[in-house]
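user: At home tonight, take the chain set out below, taking as long as you need, and be ready to discuss the fold:
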Amino acid sequence: MRHKIIYRHWQPGDDDAVLELLLPAEQVDENIYRNKDIEAEGIRLALVDERVVGHVWGEPCSFFIEDKCQRFVSVGAVFVAQDMRRQGVATRLMQELHVHFQTKGYRGSILDVDEEAAIRLYQKVGYQQFTQDLQTQLLPNQSPTQLEWAEVNLSDLRALPQLDEVWAKQNFPVSCDRQSIKVNQYTMGGYRVLRQGQNIVGYARWDEPSEYYRHGLIRDPIAPDVDPMEVIASVQSAIPATRTWQTAEGGKYEAPLRSYGYTFEPTGTVIMLSSFGQEIDLTGYHRTAWW
């Protein structure tokens, strides 16, 4: 006998029941979830009696596409209790989430996924794979270069959103939401800026070697007006030992790195996109690693 499933959006007082579902599966951090800043309608729940058996949430984000900054929803924490799977719960939750954001004028939905079963689920509700993250091991090379990587100073921060805006017109997905600045006084230690003389011409997420990143990790530098080959050479000059470089299939740096003889391994992360209404045209856009 099938249980009667109730579908609705999140309501105050739901957190304890939601966390009973999500915490054992390591889907969320409890503190982050309890202090979330997401509208109630952006969290969809499936309940049997008063037990939460399914969950999905959508966070608003903005990307530059089709010559303007447009709103998207970034989907996460999609999870269904083990005993309630194969009953269409996740599909129904995703469909309801899409309807909500589409009626609010959002252009589409984006998410990252690393499991085949999840890819099949998202394809059922209209998502298509448009890129995947790749990694290669970049070797140091102390060739002369006019570009220099340096730690980020507070005075550098105002230049970075402008670089994002130019980069976003050529690459996707790149946030164009000025309300959500990723590099600030609290996070700037994890980034480096690229200087040409006194000018900042680029920046990158730059993780030093650690227990988590054995060789360190550098994600696609955002340097819109610099030749990719020069950017690669500048990184090689700045690293004392092998570093992992993360890019995206179809990205601006993939072909130049391959021309140097580098090969790539997929990270397992696939980026998927669903259009609301007219299909999104990504012709002419480079893909980029989603930070």
